[in-house]
Amino acid sequence: MQPSPISDRRTPGSDRTVPPPGRPSASGRELREPPFDEPRVLAVVDGPDTADYTDAADYVAHTATLRGVVRQRLVTRALTGHLPPAPARLLDIGGGNGVQALEFARRGYNVTVCEPDSRMLAETRRGLADAPESVRRRVELVQGDGRDAVHLVGTGWDAIFCHGVIMFVPEPAPLLNVLVELTRPGGIISVVGKNGPALALRAGLQGRWRDTAALLGEPGSAGAVGPGRQPAVQPRPGDDPANVAAILTAAGTRSLAWYGIRTFTDHLGGIPPGPDVDAVIDAEWAAGARDPYRGIARLIHHVHRRTG
Ligand SMILES: C[S@@+](CC[C@H](N)C(=O)[O-])C[C@H]1O[C@@H](n2cnc3c(N)ncnc32)[C@H](O)[C@@H]1O
User: Ligand 1 in contact with 127 (CB < 6 A)?
Assistant: First the structure.
C-alpha cells in the first residue's frame, strides 16, 4: 500500500496558546499543532444506555448505521447547494473520522481537517488509505482544538464545516466566533448541532417515558440518569438552534438556510441501512427542508454566509 501523502503530527509541549514552529506539509502549507492530553471521551447522552457513541471506535460504528448514514448524506446534500465550485479550500473543524472530508475531496475540493482526537485522525487516515492518490493529495490533517484553529491553520477559508462539535464545548460562542473568523468574507459556515427543544422525541418514540418527562423539563420528573427523582434535564446553550444562529449572525454572517436532520429515523437505534436507504434519505431530505418536520428533527444544520 502506498503511504498516504496526508500530513499530521503530534508534538509534546506545554503551551497551548503558542504552538511550536510548523513545518511545510505535503502541499507546502505549514501545519502546526499544540500539545494534547490523552484523547477525550466522546459522549452524547440523553438517558441511560442511550449514548450514540462514547469513543472514536463507537463513532465509526455509529457512522455505518442508518442514523449515521442519514446524517452524513443529508449534510453533504445540503452543502452541495451552497458551496462554491471545486476546487475551493474547505476546513472541517472536529472532522472526526473524515466522512465529509473524504466526500468533498472526492468531489475535487481541497480539505483540511482540524481534529483534536488522535484516534479520530487515525480513522480518517485509514479511510484515506483506500482512496485514490488524487483524493488523498487533497486532504490535510491537523491535530488541534477548533478554538485554536486561527493559529493552527490561518484564516481566509472558502468554507468551514463544524458538524456535531458544539455539543462538546461548554459554551458555543467562543467556537462559533472562531468559525466566522476563519472564513473569508462571502465564505460559507456550516454548523450541525443538537435540536434542544425537540430532544424528548427520541426518548418518547422509544417508550422511555421517565427520560421523556425529564427531557421535556417536567419539574420533579424522574431524571434520565440514576435512580430516584432528579432535576429535569437542562438544555445546554449549544443545543439551542436559535442561540447558535444568533451567535453566528452577531459575529458577521447571515443565514442562508437551515435543515433538520433525522426526523423519521432518529429513534431507530443502531440498525444498519437497508436496500431502501435512498428512499429513506429522500424522505428525510424532504422533511428536513420544510416546516413543521424540520423543527422536530434530532439535529439542526445551519448554513450561513460571512457578510463582512
Ligand atoms: C460527533 S464527532 C463529529 C465528527 C464529524 N464532524 C462528523 O460530523 O462526523 C465530534 C468530533 O468533535 C471533536 N471535538 C470535540 N471537541 C472539539 C473541539 N474543541 N475542537 C474541535 N473538535 C472537537 C471530537 O474529537 C470528535 O471528532
Answer: no
What is residue 19's predicted lDDT score, i.e. its pLDDT? 33
Domain spanning 23-199+235-306, CATH architecture: 3-Layer(aba) Sandwich (3.40)
Residue with the smallest CA separation from ligand 1 atom 27 is: 96
How do the domains of the chain map onto residue ranges? 23-199+235-306
Give the pLDDT band of residue 20 (cuts 50, 70, 90): very low
**Gap between the Cα atoms of 92 and 246, Å rounded:** 21
- Over residues 39-65, the pLDDT tens digits come to 344 444 444 344 556 688 889 989 999
Return the biggest CA–CA distance within the chain. Answer: 59
Q: How far is ligand 1, taken at its centre, from the CA of residue 123, in Å? A: 13
For 151-189, how does the pLDDT look when each residue is reduced to its tens digit (9 = 90+)? 999 999 999 999 999 999 999 999 999 999 999 999 999
Neighbouring C-beta atoms of residue 282, cutoff 10 Å: 12
How many whole angstroms from 220 Cα to the centroid of ligand 1?
Answer: 33
State in Å: Cα 165 to ligand 1 middle.
Answer: 4
Q: Within 10 A of 62 (CB to CB), how many other CB atoms are there? A: 20
What is the residue-averaged pLDDT of the chain?
84
For residue 304, how many C-alpha atoms fall within 13 Å in the half-sphere facing its CB?
32
pLDDT, tens digit, for every residue of 58-107? 899 899 999 999 999 999 999 999 999 999 999 999 999 999 999 999 99
120 lines ligand 1 (CB under 6 A): yes
pTM score: 0.84
CA–CA distance, 38 with 188 (Å, rounded to integer): 32
Q: Whose CA is nearest to atom 8 of ligand 1?
A: 163
